[in-house]
Write a structure and sequence with these properties.
Structural class: alpha/beta
Number of strands: 10
Strand order of the largest sheet: 6-7-8-3-9-10
Distance between the termini: 28 Å
CATH class of the largest domain: Alpha Beta
Helix content: 25-40%
Radius of gyration: 19 Å
Number of helices: 10
CATH topology of the largest domain: Rossmann fold
Oligomer: single chain
Length: 265
């Protein structure tokens, strides 16, 4: 990665729920354009970390900086407006709405409906803005190859297509940082290959910075620039795929547990 200044810095973040420690003094950074994966056994704290970055959880201790700005206390909506988008482990689509309308929801932070511009809308501003958003959504639909279901009700789609629609809605925000929580969970091999291709293109062609939680180690090793391993809420290792996957502590805590592979999240 050519640019060394981090887009995201997580500094000594700890998270407690009562007496339970979900995260303990975890630090890492992600550079612009990087595809950074977080792996670890079930209950390791991976989703808790994404929730801290996105603003759903506020760390008990530590700080989170985005583009050099401390965002630790900001709401999820405020962080989304700054350019942090995400998908969820469990699908969070509006099942009764069309694919097109679901993706349009992802554009709402980009609408220019403030007081100063509102008075000019009767002159055609609203129509121009609507066309701009429609064009952006159509580009995403083409990119994710879902044009054939653009008018379909989201709740009636196959699981794999619904995961694509959720990704479409997340990237409709035009995020600088995209958080992916198990984007390939529950998919068959062909669906996983498609999703991996889309994620690589978002990184390489769209220049999007990505943090991904994923338990398919083949995918993680193939597409990640760097990997961090969490175990019981602590950082166990961080580095390239080769370094991390060959680490003896990682093998012992995670990769060697073949019998539990399906349970890993």
């Amino acid at each position: 990665m050519g640019e060394q200044t981090p887009l995201l810095e997580v500094k000594d973040v700890s998270l407690r729920f009562g007496g339970v420690r979900a995260l303990t003094e975890v630090s890492f950074h992600v550079r612009p354009g990087e595809l950074f994966s977080i792996i670890g056994p079930n209950g390791a704290g991976k989703t808790s970390m994404l929730n801290c970055v996105s603003g759903r959880y506020t760390p008990t201790e530590g700080r989170i900086l985005f583009e050099g700005r401390d965002v630790t206390g900001l709401s999820p909506n405020h962080r989304a407006a700054l350019g942090i988008g995400r998908t969820f482990q469990n699908l969070a689509l509006f099942g009764h709405m069309s694919v097109l309308d679901n993706i349009m929801v992802g554009r709402h932070h980009l609408l220019k409906n403030n007081v100063l511009t509102g008075s000019l809308y009767w002159l055609g501003g609203a129509r121009r803005e609507e066309l701009e958003h429609r064009r952006a959504v159509e580009d995403i639909i083409d990119f994710l190859e879902i044009a054939h279901v653009r008018r379909a009700t989201a709740g009636q789609l196959s699981y794999g297509l619904r995961k694509r629609v959720e990704l479409a809605r997340a990237i409709a925000l035009r995020p600088k940082l995209l958080l992916l929580d198990e984007p390939m969970a529950g998919m068959n091999l062909e669906e996983k290959e498609d999703m991996a291709r889309f994620i690589i293109d978002l990184s390489e062609e769209w220049g999007m910075t990505i943090i991904m939680i994923e338990h398919d180690m083949g995918v993680v090793a193939d597409i990640s620039h760097r990997i961090m391993v969490l175990d019981f809420g602590r950082k166990l290792a961080e580095g390239s795929a080769d370094d991390v996957l060959n680490d003896e502590h990682v093998k012992k805590a995670y990769l060697g547990e073949d019998d539990d592979e399906e349970a890993v999240a």
